[in-house]
Structure formats: C-alpha cells, structure tokens
Amino acid sequence: MTATALSTDLYQLTMVAGHVAAERHERVTATFELFVRSLPPHRNFLVAAGLESVLDYVTHLSFDGDQIAWLRHSDELRAAPPAFFDYLRAFRFTGEIRAMREGTPVFPNEPMLQVTAPLAQAQLVETAILSLVNFQTSVASKAVRVVAAADGRPVMEFGARRAHGPDAALLAARAAYLAGCSSTSLVEAGRRFGIPLSGTMAHAWVQAGESETAAFEEYARLFGERSTLLLDTFDTEAAARAIVASGLRPGAVRLDSGDLLVLSRSVRAILDSGGLATTQIVASSDLDEFRIHGLLSAGAPIDAFGVGTSVVTSIDAPALGGVYKLVELNAGGVIRRVVKKSSAKATWPGRKQVWRYTERNSRDVIGLDGEPGFTGAAPLLEPVLHSGRRVAGDVTVGSARAWCARAVAALPETLRRIEHAPAYQVDQSPGLRDAIAEHGSAPPR
Amino acid sequence: MTATALSTDLYQLTMVAGHVAAERHERVTATFELFVRSLPPHRNFLVAAGLESVLDYVTHLSFDGDQIAWLRHSDELRAAPPAFFDYLRAFRFTGEIRAMREGTPVFPNEPMLQVTAPLAQAQLVETAILSLVNFQTSVASKAVRVVAAADGRPVMEFGARRAHGPDAALLAARAAYLAGCSSTSLVEAGRRFGIPLSGTMAHAWVQAGESETAAFEEYARLFGERSTLLLDTFDTEAAARAIVASGLRPGAVRLDSGDLLVLSRSVRAILDSGGLATTQIVASSDLDEFRIHGLLSAGAPIDAFGVGTSVVTSIDAPALGGVYKLVELNAGGVIRRVVKKSSAKATWPGRKQVWRYTERNSRDVIGLDGEPGFTGAAPLLEPVLHSGRRVAGDVTVGSARAWCARAVAALPETLRRIEHAPAYQVDQSPGLRDAIAEHGSAPPR
Predict the structure, then answer these.
(1) CB distance A161–B325 less than 8 Å?
(2) Residue B242 domain-assigned?
(3) Mean pLDDT by 10 residues, chain A (445 residues)
(4) Residues A271 and A360 in one domain
(5) Residue B421: is its pLDDT beyond 70?
(6) Is B313 in contact with A319 (Cβ distance < 8 A)?
C-alpha cells in the first residue's frame, strides 16, 4: 500500500543504471513471471492475492526530485551515468501486466503475474511486486484453510496486533476477507475496503469496571444485542452464570483461554438453562485450521471463531517463496527466450499462459503464450494493465471474494480439505516441453 | 510507520465509547504494560525494538473529520454517545511512556514498554503499539542470532521481497540493522534511516547481457571495485573461471545456490590461483543462523553473508506473543492494582520497574515502581514520553545499534550462542511478590 519509488532493492537501481549505460533500458522489452517453485507444507493450493496493490503501486510509481537528489549523492550510485538520473526523473511504468484474478487457486510453476515492459521498468518493480504478492498470497492461502475448517461458521479475523506492522495488518485483513473470513477487527480495513467489522471486548474493560457484572451491564446497555461479552478474565463459568443472573441478553459470549471444548459445553449448558439459547459462543485463543477442525469434530458447540496470529502471519509458512524471473527478451522484434540453470532454482523459458480444465478431470496446463488454446480449458492470465493503464476499473474485495469462493469450490474436493492431498495435476504443453528441451534446462524441482 | 488513527481494533473504539459513556475516560488513569509470557523456540533472549515508531505513532495520533464521520455512520458505532465523537475530535495522546531502550535484551514477564495515561487514551493505542513492537522485536531478536553466527563477518540484509509488504520491509531493515546487520538492500531504509546500503546483481542482469562475461564486464566497468558478480546463473565454477580469464577485479562474487561449502572452496581456489585473492566471497540462499554456523564451523571461506527471508520474517518465530495488559488504575489518587486470572494467561499486578545486574552474576529483578532501588543494578525502563511529548530527541538507529551491541555483550556468554541456553535469572522483588500474593494471582505460566 505504501510502497515508494525507493521501496526497492539497491541492485534494481544499479542494474537499471547499467541498462541505461548500455542503452538497452527501453530498447529491449522483457517479460518477467512471478511463480512459486513448490507449495509450503500444509498447503494443497495457494490463493492468488495482492494484484490490486500491485496495480496501485505501478500506476503511481514515480521519483520525486528529493529522491533523485538523494540517489545521486549516495556512495552506491555516484558512478551511475547522468542519463540514469534523467531516466528516473521521467520514469513512468508503461508496460503490460497479465495476472490471475485475485482469489484464483494457483499451483507451483504457474505464473500468477506476468510483466512485459521495457527492460529497466520490468526490473525496477520486482522488489515491491514480490513483497506485495508473496505476503498477501500467503495470508489468503492460510485463511482459506481456516475458513474451510470452520465449516460454514463465521471466522472473524482479528490479528492486527501480531501482524508485521500496521500496514501488514491492513493487507492481511483484506487477504483474509478475500479468502472467506467473515469480518476483520481492523477499523482501517473496514473504512478502506468496506470489509465488515466485528469486535468483542478486552480483559481491560472487565478489569476497569466496578465489578465484572457491572462491566458487562455497562457494555450491553450501550451496544445491546451487538455485545459479545468476554468470559475468562477471572473464571469463565462463573462469568456465564453472572450473565444469566443479571438478566442480560448479549448476542454472544467469548471464550479466550482454557479448554475450549470443555468450556464451550459447560457455558452452552449454563446459557441454555438460563434462557439464553440464542446467545452465541465465540471462541478464540491461538486458533488455526487444525484446532478448529479438532474442536468441531469433537462436537464443541461453538458458533463462530476469532482467529488472529495464524492467519495474519500465515504462521506455519510465513514467507512464500514466490520469485520473479526473466523468461523472454524482445529486442526490436527478435525474441530470445531465456532460462537460468542454478541448482534447484532453474526456470522455464518463454512467455506463458496457464489453462485450467474444471470439468470432471480437473487439471491445468502451462503453455507458451500464442500456442493454440486448449478446448474446454480457460486461460487464467488476464490482461490487467495495458500501456501502463488499467484495463478495467478497480476490483472490489467483495467481488474478488465471490470469485475466490467459486474458484475454490471448483477444485477437487480432496484439495479443499485441510489434510494433505495428492498433488493437483499440472501439465506442460507440447510447446513448452519443446522450448525447455531446446534450452537444456532441467525442470524446476 | 504508517499507522493511522483507525489502525486499531474495533473493540478499542467501542471500549473507549463505553468509558466515555461511564465518564471515566479521562477521570481514571491507567497503566498498561507490554511484555511476553515466554521466549519463542530458539531464542535465549529478545532484543527490544519498535520504540521509535511507537513514539512517532502516539505523538501524531489524531482523528480527522472524515474518519469521525465514517465512524459515526458505521453500524458498529452508531450506538455510541455523541460525547464519544466529540472526544475523538479533540483526541491527543497526553500520557507518559516508559520503555526499555531499543536494542536492550529482554526476558519473559519483563515490561519492555509501559503506558500511563487517561484510561481511554491508554486503551486506544494498544493495537498499533503491539503490532509495531511485536514485529520489530521479532526481527531484531532473530537478526542478533544471525549476526552472532557470522562471527564478525558482515551480514547484509536483503529480505524486502519476502517481507510482509513494503512497509514491513522498511521496519525489518531498521530492526535488523539495529541488531547488528551491516547493511540493507532496501533503498528506502537507506534514505529514511541512514542505514548503509549494499547490493549485488540479479540473475536477470546476467541473462539480459550478450553473454555472462559481457554482463560481468558491463557491470564492473560501471561500478568497479563495488561490483559483486553473481556466479550461479548457469554454472558457478565456470563463471568464476570466466572472471579470472576476463581480467576483471571485482570486489566480491556471490554464490546463491548449490552446496555453499563445496562451492566456496572451489571458487576461492579459482580466484586465488587467478590472482584475485582479495576478491571476497558472499554467500546467500535461504541462510539462517544455523546454516551460517554450519558453514563456518566446516571452514567455508565465506567473507560475508546475504540474509533475507529468515531475518525479515523471523521465520521460525514469525509472531511474537507480546501482550499489553492493564496492571493499575488510579482514580483521583486511589490506586487499584489489577490482575487477570485466565488459565495460562494470568498477569502480575501493579506498575513495575525492571532492574538489571550486569556485574558477575548477571540477573534481573522485576519490582514494583517506587520500591527502593537495588544497589548495583540499573533500571531498564526509562521515561521517553511525558505529557504526550518526547523527553529527549529522536534516537538514531546508529546509536540504538551501538547500545544493542554493548547490552548484548554484557549478557552471559552462554545466552549469546545460538544453542539453547539455561534460562537467564529473573527474580521478583519482595514488593512484587507481596502484591501477587495479595491478589491471589498465580504467576503467569
């Protein structure tokens, strides 16, 4: 969200300076593709996210005079040619981007975002694009699992305090909602993206009251049925009994510590026998998809879940290894497909398209761009930026969320479970196979 | 860095509305303390970080008219009293903050930051403060281990592409440098904080050249001795031989894949026999403290390390469980110490101070504020904000880094190793013990 022109690695600038010095910075067009080499543990698929923030970044990218002056006087760029600073002064991103829609399930080696632009432009944007896509895709890919485990019950995301700073919290709230969470606690995300907000109360509210009951009463007086009263400041069951005795009718109560299976049952019984059968039980406390699945499998009478840390940091896979690799160069119409052959980090040549068959035998095919289409399969990379301008308007997170739900529902059922599933079938097209053979590159992993 | 007034959980606002309705929002003064309950795995201590960004946040915190209008019309706050919105309109943080200096080693249950302010103010800032401190402390606490493993060799942080967004990358670069990294690749961090920058080249540079040798030559022509040439685009040893044959004299070469021990030895031999004994070897590729320690223990001739993902995400402990808990209320001079008793999440009552003995038998004592000092021990919580204003000027990251190095060096040697060490001794003062006994709270954990 807050990327600046300097939100980039130094080497992007030194390489751009080198391309300017060699006068190929705008003369050569490059295609870079963003993909992951393998799935993290406990992921049967990824959910693409981050595209909107990428488009926001590239369409606003420019250098101001202060930034250029600073670069010019830095030790690292003092050797750069004057033409480099002139180039930065006039810099605008004028290239093309094709990408999978946010919310699309994605598999290893499939380009999820593809930049075709003058070489220097395509190079410069690498760092911020990777950071935006890697992170948001991580969060969406974790959230979709937590939502699946909750089996139709609302999952409220409230992880801001454990996110990697306030801006990461904002990006995470959006990615989590996109992947199916029902709401966020982060007010800025509500305002910025129109995501529904939800909240309960903190222990400090209970502690600051004259008594626990007084604290509950004050809150319920103000917020009525919207109130979710927090039970575990002193003793969870005693608090539930106090609510019944007080005659309050809160919309929900929240369990935040202890054995959530045992407590949800005992609190449910206390509420039911006290005439509060419609008061819901919300559970939180370091929950993830496995704990939620365990609670529900054991029959815990929990109506909604509050999830924070595990989703906003994608805690079991906190860094997605998405890479952004040069695959094709075009110098005045002469096209050169390129590869790297680094041990365990090789790449496939050429500008690509990904095709998905969703009927019966679901599978994907990675092909070269321009190969004839595959009957019955849909292309996943869509043009989103043309000559530096957005092809369509902004995509709301609500529509991306609806698309995500449909696209995930179309996956084989085994992939949508939280247990490890056999790998989804992703084939190479004949054209891609030939191109790889020609370049002598071992297939990545 | 980019926290707004709405970078907060909804419940902070509903609780503030409740405090306003009960007219205790400014009448009651509260003290909240930020601490962790336990160390993450593979951490013998934490390194406090994030204070500067907290001070920036609280001293700039205010609500604008648009934000207030949005809140007033939200479903969640429609029930709040008009006085609440008036309160937000005039909101300024006028409280006190005491904190450990950035770079200070910190242990479980020790308050590293303490807010004493009118109840509503102290409540409202919880979310952003936790997010800022949890994240930056995570990164600093990981970086200090990586730096220790490198045993005096420079550690260049270049993790922006795997950070949780561009803003997290910026905060991470600062925290990593504070804890001893030698430089960052992130240009914005260089400009904003004065952190030394470093960079190498990407595979795409080599791929975009006429040949690998031509790419090396072009880069070295521009950046001379500052050049670090990347060897593994096609074949690491062949690239090293090509450099020798070309007569280039790069400052360094970089290994980024394959068996770094084997390759560092063979590349060192190629360079040495080619008259490039002063060309350094930089290694990267998913390095962390354990891999670096392993390489150096085996005698790998590596001069510097590039580290990204593991540091900027604190990958093995990506979410620090720092909490912000109410410990004391002061209503017109009547002081009430408070606790919560939640299972495994209990808290200790009262406003505290942490004392550190560094001579011979190093240990800390957590005491109540106002207890007589402990001879030979230094208090770690220092006043940094008074009546909403900074007590001293900004602290540069350079001075925090120097402080960190000294404070870490004063720790027992076993703690500074990357292996698990016996827990550092942290005692309760007699006054704190009495207060806990009085409140009947079990000690946390």
Answers:
(1) no
(2) yes
(3) 90 96 95 97 97 97 97 93 97 98 98 98 98 98 98 97 98 98 98 95 93 95 92 95 96 96 98 97 97 98 98 97 96 92 84 92 93 91 97 91 97 95 96 90 40
(4) no
(5) yes
(6) yes
C-alpha distance from B357 to closest chain A C-alpha (Å): 31
The first and second tokens of residue A371, run together, are 């190969």
pLDDT-based confidence at residue B392 (cuts at 50, 70, 90)? confident
- Tally of domains within chain B: 2
Same domain, B306 and B346: no
Q: CA–CA separation, A116 vs A138, rounded Å?
A: 25
**DSSP letters spanning B50-66:** -HHHHHHHHHH----HH
Contact between A418 and A43 under an 8 Å Cβ cutoff? The reply is no
CATH of the domain at A239: 3.20.20.70
Q: Domain containing B304: what range?
A: 145-312
Contact B131 A165 (CB under 8 A): yes
Residue B140 included in any domain? no
Nearest CA to CA, how far is B313 from chain A (Å)? 7
Residue B207 lies inside a defined structural domain of this protein: yes
- Do residues B155 and B97 share a domain? no
The reply to whether B306 and B329 lie within a common domain is no
Sheet bearing A280-283, strands edge to edge: A183-184, A155-157, A304-307, A280-283, A252-255, A228-230
User: Are A164 and B158 a contacting pair at CB < 8 A?
Assistant: no
Domain CATH number, residue B327: 3.20.140.10
Instruction: Let me know if residue B3 belongs to a domain.
Output: no
User: Going by DSSP bridges, is the β-strand pair A304-307/A155-157 parallel, antiparallel, or unpaired?
Assistant: parallel
Percent helix, strand and coil across chain A, each to the nearest 5: 40, 20, 40
The number of CA neighbours under 13 Å toward the Cβ of B399 is 6
Q: Are residues A152 and A96 in the same domain?
A: no
Nearest-CA distance A398 → chain B (Å): 18
Residues B369, B291, single domain; the answer is no
Q: Which of A32, A319, A344 sits opposite B162 (nearest CB)?
A: A319
Task: Verify that B269 and B149 share a domain, yes or no.
Answer: yes
- Of the candidates A166, A192, A310, A189, the one whose C-alpha atom is nearest the C-alpha of residue B171 is A166
Question: Cβ atoms within 10 A of the Cβ of B202, count?
Answer: 23
- Asked whether the ipTM of the predicted complex exceeds the cut of 0.85, the reply is yes
A-B Cβ pairs (cutoff 8 Å, strict): 357
Which of B254, B280, B312 delimits the end of a domain? B312
Predicted pLDDT of residue B440: 66
B233 with A340: Cβ contact below 8 A = yes
**Is a pLDDT exceeding 70 seen at residue B281?**
yes
pLDDT at B61: 98
Nearest CB to B6; choose among A187, A224, A342: A187
* Residue among A4, A321, A324 whose CB faces B188 most closely: A4
**Considering B260, B286, B312, which residue would you say is the last residue of a domain?**
B312
Using a CB-CB cut-off of 8 Å, the residues of chain B touching A201 are 11, 14-15
Residue B180 DSSP one-character state: T
Nearest CA in chain A to B7: A188
* Choice between A345 and B125, residue whose per-residue pLDDT is larger: B125
User: How far is the alpha carbon of B426 from chain A, nearest alpha carbon, in Å?
Assistant: 25
Most A CBs within 10 Å: which of B164, B237, B345, as the mutation test of the A interface?
A: B164
Q: Identify whether residues B61 and B108 lie together within a single domain.
A: yes
